[in-house]
Amino acid sequence: MTNKVTLTQFIIEQQRELPGVSGMFTSLLNDIVTACKKISHLVNRGELIGVLGSAGSENIQGEVQKKLDIITHNIMVDALCWTGHLAGMASEEAEDWIKIPEYYPKGKYLALFDPLDGSSNIDINLAVGTIFSILRCREGVDPSLEDFLRKGSEQVCAGFVLYGPSTMMVLTTGHGVNGFTLDQAIGEFILTHPAMRIPPETGEFAINMSNKRFWEPPVQRYIEECLQGEAGPRGKNFNMRWIASMVAEVYRILTRGGVFLYPFDFRDPSRAGRLRIMYEANPMAFIIEQAGGACSTGRERILDIKPHSLHQRVPVILGSKNEVERIISYHKELGDTAVTQKP
Ligand code: AFP
């Protein structure tokens, strides 16, 4: 019988190798896994149980909430608030960080999550996912917002669950990236993609082309060169993908390479991009770098950014290392003048 390593076994065996990682961390990960299994079941059942469509409300981001945005947010909060592993939580769907009720014990970790990334896809039956990030909190004091606003390089764990044809979990604790497939028959995630690595070269980019007129010149130049194909300066043809679900884009890049861009654009200069640093860019950056890729705003490494607010947005360029570094070089060539140039 093939030795199918379950996620639980994998986490416990990793815990033995991680200095200072207590059973609390292992239990916290298992709590997140349980919540994601519940979400997977709901996403899979869809309209059979009436969870599709709009909730008729907006979140802090000013985005129309899907019913599943709220349901999955509540599943994550309910699964994590009582466990005694957390000192607090933050969610894309909640304006402020979420305190642990007084009647529950507090732990030493902070969990930040996007409970349903790509939710605009849910009604058209395309892949969505849950993204999570774990920080260590100061012990013996009540957490404050400042405990959350930490550089992505301080994360102790990051992961996502992709609810696609298979339900996949991708996880890093800073010792590489591993992928697990949910075996629905036994309700366990099984290690199916050990030690995931991103090829440094690629011929595939992912960007929402409808925003082209709003991009800065370095991104305009990069995409134009890709579109010119083998007749252009790159001397090769490129393929394009856009799934409008970051978790699906990142998973594709982990399996075959590629570059994903949601860059700064001029539609609303007060918003540096679309993606949120705390629970989208930072966890994905940790995973991508641990798999040998790179993740940048074009001007700085995402994991080096000191966040100033919980729902801060950043430009995101991530994937195959050599391609990301080329795009960074285009930003350097154009300097900061690019930001002031209007389309
Ligand atoms: P939603 O969760 O609102 O669908 O946004 C998903 C997302 O944050 C990210 O997962 C996608 O890559 C990106 O937005 C898609 O943005 P566009 O809809 O502007 O293409």
UniProtKB/TrEMBL annotation:
Keywords: Carbohydrate metabolism, Cytoplasm, Hydrolase, Magnesium, Metal-binding. Binds 2 magnesium ions per subunit. It is found in: Cytoplasm. Mg(2+) 1 binds at residues 92, 114, 116. It is an enzyme of class 3 (hydrolase). GO terms for cellular component: cytosol. Residues 198-331 form the Fructose-1-6-bisphosphatase class 1 C-terminal domain. One of its GO terms (biological process) is fructose 6-phosphate metabolic process. Pathway: Carbohydrate biosynthesis. It catalyses: beta-D-fructose 1,6-bisphosphate + H2O = beta-D-fructose 6-phosphate + phosphate. Mg(2+) 2 binds at residues 114, 117, 280. GO terms for molecular function: fructose 1,6-bisphosphate 1-phosphatase activity; magnesium ion binding. Substrate binds at residues 117-120, 208. Residues 6-194 form the Fructose-1-6-bisphosphatase class I N-terminal domain. InterPro entries: FBPase_C_dom, FBPase_class-1, FBPase_N, FBPtase. Its cofactor is Mg(2+). Its EC number is 3.1.3.11. It comes from the Bacteria. The keyword Magnesium applies. Coiled coil: none annotated. Homotetramer. Belongs to the FBPase class 1 family. This is Fructose-1,6-bisphosphatase class 1.
